[in-house]
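Tokens help. Our protein:
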Amino acid sequence: MLQIAGIGVTRMGGNTIKSIATHEKVKFVALCDVDASHLAQAAAIYKDTVNVADWRDLLAKHADKFDAITVGVPDHSHAPIASARFV
């Protein structure tokens, strides 16, 4: 089972998560969004996930829980998140 974290859980990020989650060998184990209401909505759909507001906290504290990350955030934030070192 591939365990995935989703950063950005609505609009394009939500569509990406929804699409990837349909695969039988994928499980979302962590969600991240700066908007608490968006995060709560996604957490209600994807149960048993770690839920955090700051992507830096997600990578610093929970990187051992997932194998891959989806990044669905506005362009000005996409590059720093996608290129961050967290290992």
